[in-house]
Amino acid sequence: MVDTMNGTIEVRWHGRGGQGAKSASAILAEVLFEEGKHVQAFPEYGAERQGAPIRAYNRVSNSPIRRRCGVQNPDIVVVVDPTLVESANPSEGCADDAIYLVNTPEDAKILRKRMKLADSARLLAVDATRITLEELGQNKPNAPLLGALSHVFDDVPVESFANHFSKKMAKLSPKVLEANRRAMLRGREEAVIV
Amino acid sequence: MTSGNLAFAEAMRQINPDVVAAYPITPSTEIPMKFAEYVADGVVDTEYVAVESEHSAITACVGASVAGGRVMTASSANGVALMHEIFPIAASFRAPIVFGLVNRCLGAPVNIHCDHSDSMPERDSGWVQIYCEDAQEVYDTVLLAVRLAEHDDVLTPVFVCQDGFITSHCYEPVEFLPDDVVKEFVGERKSRYPLLDVDNPVSYGSFTMSEHYFEIKRTQIEGMNNVPRVYGGVMSELSGLTGREYPAVDCYRTDDADYVIVIMSSAAGVVKDVTDELRRGGVKAGCLRVRMFRPFPSEELKSALAGKKGVAILDRSASIGGTAPLAAEAKSALYSLRDHPPISEYIFGLGGRDFFPDDARRVFSDLASGENEGKVNYIGLLEDE
Hints:
The complex is a heterodimer. By secondary structure, chain A is an alpha/beta fold. In chain A, about 40% of the residues lie in helices and about 20% in strands. Chain A is globular and about 40 Å long. In chain B, strands 2-1-3-4-6-5-10 form a seven-stranded mixed β-sheet, with helices on both faces. In chain B, strands 7-9-8-11-12-13 form a six-stranded mixed β-sheet, sandwiched between helices.
C-alpha cells in the first residue's frame, strides 16, 4: 500500500495516555528496521496523564533520516482510540490520498463518510478493542492495529510483526503471548479496507 | 534500535566507570535509571551514589574524580543550574568527569522541552562542550569524551550534550561497538595525582590568593587549548573502529555554498534536508553545524564561511540583553576576516518550539534577499502568525 522506495513515509499515531500508542510506534519501527528500513519512533511529550490525548510518530525510509521535527503531513494516520476520531482531528495536515487505520466498532463506510475523507484516501477499520477484549480480556488495541498495519506495509509479512511482538514481550506468559498473537492475526484478518 | 538517553547509558555500561553519582531529572532521567539497573544487576561494578540533590551529585563526582576514579553523571535544565557552583571547581581541580547533559530549557515557566539555556550558562565554567545531532553521535562521543577528558595534556571535564526529547527519547538505529573493543579503547584511568595516594600526598581545594590564582587559570586555559590536537588523535583512532568521523564543525555542502545556516545539535538535520532540496533547484545552500562549542572552533568557522554571500546564525538560547551565545562566538570568530560575510541572527526553538523545513526555507530565502541582515530575528513566534 505504501512505497518506501521513494522518500520517507511518515506516520502519526493518535492515542490516549496508557493505551500503548508509544509502544506500538516503537514496535512498528523495530519491525521495519529488522526488514532493513531506516526508521524513527518518537512520541510527543506533554503532561503525562492516563487518558489524555497523545501523539506519537514514525518515519520510515530506505535512506538515512536526518530531520527530527514533528510530523506535519503524515502519509499514514493511526487512531488508537475510537473517541479521538472527533476530538483529535486525525486528518490534520494530511494529503488527500493519506491512509487511515482506525480502531472502531463502526461500519467502515459510515465512518469514512463521517470523517469526510477525500476519494483518494484509504481507510482501514478494525474493532481492535473488541478483539483484545475477547482474546486478552483487556482493552489493549496495539496488537490488532499492528496486524492491520501489515496491510499497509505490504512488503513486510505479517509473521514479522507477530514474531517481533512475541520476542519483545517475552516476559509475558506463553498463554498471554499466544493471545496477543491471535489478536494480531485477527487484526489483519478483520480489518475492512474501504 | 535505541534512544539518545539509552545510547548514553549503554556506553556507560561498556565503560564501567568507577563512580556514578546522580540525581535524576527529566529528560535525562533514563540515563541514571538505566545505569542504576546495571549496577543493581551486577553487570557493572560501579559505585553508584544516590544523592539528595544535583549539587550533591556533582560534588560527589568531583571528590571521586580527584581521588583517581573514572566518574560519570547526567543532568538537565535546573538540575544543571543547581550544579553551577561546582562546575568551575571540577574544571580547576582538573577532574575529568564525563557528563551527559540532556538539553532542556531553564524554568520559569516550568517546561520540560529542549533548548540550550541550561548548557550555555556553563560555557565559561572551564568544561569542554560537545553538542550531538543524533543518538549514534551521542554514543560515539561518550567514548571520545572519556579519552579526551583524561588525557594528560587536557585533564578537563566534558559535557556531552544532546537535545532533550528530540534526541534523548527518539528511537532509531544505533550501532554499538563490542564490549571488549570499548574496554580497550577507553583503557584504565591513570590519575597522576590521586588524592587517595597516601605515599604521595597531594591537596585539592587549597587556599590561593592573588599570588597563584591567575596561574591556575592559565594552566586550565592551556589544557583547553590542547583539546583540538588531542581530540583529533582520539577521533581518528575511534573512526578507525567505526568508520564515522566527527570533526569540531560539521560542514555540509558549504564548500561552494553562497548561503549558509550555522546551527547546533538536532535541528541541523532539517537544514541539511532543505539544503539538498534547494540545491536541486539551483540555490547554493549549505549547513554548518557547530559540534564543539568549547573550545570554540574559530579557525574552522572562518575558513568555512569566508567569502559567503550570506550567513545566518541560529541560536537555540537567548542572552537576554546581549548577543545570543552562538552568534556572539561566530561573529567574534569572523571579525578578523578582512571582508566578513553578511550576517543575520535568529533565535529559534525556545522551550521546545519545533523547527520545521519551512522555517529553514524561510531563512535561506531571507539570506538571498538580504532582508534580515544585521538584526536579530525570531523563528516561529505566535506573533508572526
